[in-house]
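User: I'm new to structure prediction. If I give you an amino acid sequence, what do you actually give back? Let's try with this one:
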Amino acid sequence: MRALCACAILVGLFTPPSVVAADTGQTSIPAQLSLDEAQRLFREHGFDLLLADAAVASAEGDLTIAKAFPNPQVGGGGGHSFSYHPSDCERPSDCSATSWNANASDQGLLFDLLIGKRRLKTDVAKKALEAARLSRADAERTLSALVKQQYVQTVLTRSALGFAREASASAEQTSQLVDLRFHAGDVSEADSARAETQKLEAEQAVDAAQQALLASKASLAFLLGARDGHVDFDVAPDLPPSRAPASLSGATTESLLAEARQKRPDLAAASSQLASADAALSLARRERIPDIAVVGGYEQQGHGQEAVQPPTATLGLSLELPVFYRNGGEIQKAEAAVRTQTLQRDKLDAQVANDVATALAAYQSAAARVQRMDSRLLERARRARDLVEYQYKKGAASLLELLDAQRTFVTTHAEYYQDLSDYWTAFYQLEEAVGTELGP
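Assistant: Good question. You get back a string of structure tokens that encode the predicted 3D arrangement of the chain. For your 440 residues, that looks like this:
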């Protein structure tokens, strides 16, 4: 029983990762889904990418706001003088008890253009938009790697199901053979029970593997933007050969780190965020200069020399006197934001170095294990199982030896699928760490 329990390991190897997604339209997944098609569907319908697109659109709106000229402010009014009698004037037609006025202000536009506040506001918004676009690219980098990993896990889960069925068929044959020998009196009931237990455990593993495959497909469909839990599709039967691509030939941590610092969009986004914080600090300092608005007005009450207020045009300036407060808090916050963004960028640079070193070490280790499996270990485990099975049928080996050979065979394959999972996970994580595709 312990031997066949190793089949259950195959199920646990490919537990689908938790994913978060959302979509604005239905995703149509083809019956035969390739990795390239999965990537295309993800880029078109991936929930988090759509959210990142919305964030970019919001930043574009902020830039439009920053570039906009303030609308002029206009005002007017009228009144009536109750104790004033126009009839007492020598020329009553020149006098009036009704007054009115009008005014207009540029809302500080001319002064803002003169001292550069509008330009600084635009710089802040431009850098924020650039950071949003780079953040969107970084979301695609990380989520694309997740899609690739989930696709590979689905392929491996399908292969694990196939192997579980093969192990179940082998266990069924062994159980039937032992049962025949038991009824012939050649083996004990204990041997028959061991063989039947092996068969039942193998059937359990098949059921678990089928459920794992459905769950893996559902997680993949979710990443691609499906809303209905659609799993009526199939993936590629096999993965590409696990050979090191040419781009990794002779690659070192230092060379990959240098490439990552050039291509990682999150590093570029951090630099843009720092530039935006610098521009915001300059704007906060410039805001200490009060906005001066140009104000024009017109008023009158009556006409001629006897008018209470002859037609009069005025032009003046309006400003807020910085007597009690000079934007000190905003400047302090802007300076803190610059320090924060500088530290965030430096921290991210260190994280990139750690990501590359860790991913490369994991990839090299997994590649070595897979190579060892492919070159010798798998073939020898199968050969040993087949030989002991043949010997048992001829009476030259015990049932315990057969079960042990089958246990070794199942365990070796379970380890092989785990090594493949580790290899492709490490490969795509290395792509994610470097910020570029490294090849098939």
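You can read the tokens as a compact description of the fold. Here is one thing that stands out. The chain has one domain: 2-74+98-434.
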